[in-house]
Amino acid sequence: MNNEFYTFSTDTHRGKNVILISLKYSQKNKEALRKRFPSVRWSQTKKSWYLPDLPVVRQQLGMEPKSMIQGKMMSLSATNQKAYAQMYDQLQLKGYSDNTKRIYMAEFYHLLKLLKSYPVDRLDSARLKDYFLHCVKKEGMGERKLNGKINAVKFYFEQVLHRPKMFFDIPRPKKPLVLPKLLSKEQVAKVFNATDNLKHLVALKLCYGAGLRVSEVVNIKLNDVDSARMVIHVVGAKGKKDRYVPLPEKLLPLLREYFKKYRPKKYLFEGKYGGAYSKSSVQQVFKKAMKIAGIRKKIGIHGLRHSYATHLLESGADMRFIQELLGHNSITTTQVYTKVTPQRLSMVKSPLDSM
Fold it and tell me: What positions belong to coiled-coil segments (predicted)?
């Protein structure tokens, strides 16, 4: 197929954003489209083929990507639209991760919506404190959410407007010490046994067996897996840091079986439209496996990484070594696992037991 023979347009279909492909219905066209996009559908009402409007689909079709700020900016008052656009441009120039950009833009948008037509640049320290108090008292915002909001607004005034740092002296809420949630080795095994899809099983085993974040798992490329050296190269992880982690020996035969079956082209795990597999898909896989395994703990897929670290600590691994494997900046972050190690707790005998 050649792009010269059809055009694309965006629309909504059954309540979802889609990309319409102006190509007549025929068996030949159907086969050609489905070779490239297995999930392409024909709409009788639109008289057109359509695909979901996703970034990876746009990339493969050679379409311009949807801007992160497109649409939202138009819902703001004309007074603050420029500020919103400048915020995004500066985040781009500073090379912030997509996740950080998404969070900062969402938090800044919240402020601009409340301001309506009042210019954000006119806010002083007192007005900003009032805004954060509003977030806590009126909207019931928690510590983590509020800290993210402070960081976003601080970025705008310091990095976009280049105001002095002392301009923005907002007291930070104290973060609660929340212990990581984890599974026992027996429970991890139950989760694996409850997963019958090969692709899903390999993804979950990488989360636990290599202690990877789900974002790191879906971003693994084929050339990041070095079976000769038995390592995985984790590229551009949190904080834009690379690191190597051991490739579990038991996982290698499963990886080879997986590769023969799925034949991925670029990423180890690829979505049905190509490109990297989504984090939400792996999270749903874990959630489903937990349910089938009959484990009722309220824990997300990140619990596999916590379990990896705790089980390493229990087996006698050095704390500094675990820090490097997990990619933590500070040893303090890693030391939290000492508080949840059952072996340490079992060494302490209650006075009640000696009565």
Answer: none
